[in-house]
Every structure is written in C-alpha cells, then in structure tokens.
Automatic annotation (TrEMBL):
Pfam families: Ferritin_2. It comes from the Bacteria. The lineage of its organism: Bacteria, Pseudomonadati, Bacteroidota, Flavobacteriia, Flavobacteriales. InterPro entries: Ferritin-like_SF. CDD domains: Ferritin_like (cd00657). It comes from Kaistella carnis. This is Ferritin-like domain-containing protein.
Amino acid sequence: MNLLNILDRLADDHFYSKIGSRSEGLSHMANFGKKAAITGIPLGLGSFMATSAKAETVTTTSTYSAASAASALTDALQLALTLEYLEDEYYRTGLAKAGLIPGGDKVVFQQISKHETAHVAFLKATLTSLGTEPGAKPEFDFTVNGAFQPFDDYAQFMVLAQAFEDTGVRAYKGQAGNVASNKAVLQAALQIHSVEARHASQVRRMRANKGWVELANGGNMPAATDAVYAGEDNLNQAGYNTSTLFGATAGSASFDEILTGSDAAAIAGLFIV
C-alpha cells in the first residue's frame, strides 16, 4: 500500500470517529523471541527455518498488500458512485422542475446530466465486475433540512451545482492512489475526472466566475460551501513555493488540491438523509 493509500485510509478512520450530525456538519462547512529459538537449532536446519519464515512473511505481506489494495480500490469506487449518484439525481430533479432552468442553460445541464448518468452506470458495472455489490443510491435531501432551496431558486441551484462539480473534481484526484492498483480503472477514473473538471469550469463560468479556483475561494460562493475549497490556498508543491514567479494567487491557481475520502464523504453526507 503506497503513501497515498495509507494517508487516505487514516483520514477515513479519523472521519468516522469524529463525524457528527448533518447539522453539525453544515456548521463545520461554514466555519477534516523467534530468532533466539532458531539459534539453538543445528546450523543447516536453522538457516532453512529462517529462510522459510522469511518466505512466509513475504507471502503473507504480499497477500495482505493485495487485499488492502483491492479494498482501497472498491472503497474508492463506492465513494465515487455516491458522488455520481448525488450529481445524477440533482440534475435530474432540477431539469424536471418546470421553469427552474432558463432555456439557454437547460441544454448545458441536459448534457451534464447525461454524463453523470453514464458515470453511475460505469461505476456500478465496474464494481460488479470486481465481485463487489454496488452501493444502493442514498435518499438525498438537497435542501439540507431547509437550509437551501435549489429547486425554487435558480441562483441557489447554480451554487450547489458548482459546489458539487468542484467537490467531484477534487475527490477523484484524492482517490488516484487508491485505484492505481488497477490500470484499467485508473485510466477510466482519470477520464471521468477530466470530464468533471470540464463540468466544473463550465458551471463556474455560467456563474460569471473564472474557470479555475484561486486560493481558498470558490468564487462568489456562500460560506456554507467553504469545506469544498478548504486547502486550495496551498502554495507549496513538492517543496516548491508556487508563488515565486507570479505571486500567491497565480501560484495557487496553477495547482488544484485534492479532497481526502473523508472530506468528500463529509460533504456528500450533508445531503444524504
């Protein structure tokens, strides 16, 4: 298991030990002895046993690593499926609400909706092919107990659309290490990631924002969505200060940050009943 896998799984364990109620989550968004025995055996036999023990250790470690990689892979796919379920239902619901989306914008969201439906179908098929039952679609409450009214107010609909797309982009990046054990899945995940990034850029521009994220600022977004952009003001990449050439704003915008599995799950969980 590589470092990305370890860090993400630790983050998930931390998340599940600390996560509170949905209302608390919304508030947080607004303000993440064997050697000794062998020496007593005749030299030849002792050496054999030591070699056998070493081989057994290697085999056990290899088996454990393979199992861990498989678990990390399916966990990452299940998280992605939850996020795609969320986006898919969100756009389906918005498109079905008469008079909500202006005619010119509706064409865009109809296409985005088709993409999300395709992503759901792919992730379910992939999990099934790996011998894992795809998670059932959760029941969603996009109002978060009345805090939002996205299907009655187009401006709010757009705010959550941007938040969901920006979350998806960061979440897929955050799971790259966990799907790297399967090259076919990794390639497909990267292909989905780039499409989600195009969605995010399009929606951001439809809201008169830049297509990219600058610092920890989603661009004309309410404080309740701060968790989506937490950490985006990072200036250091692999020990290099990205602000050196053009300043903090351009340096930060040149590198998007990830969301850990726990952070992405916490954001999605606010909208799950």
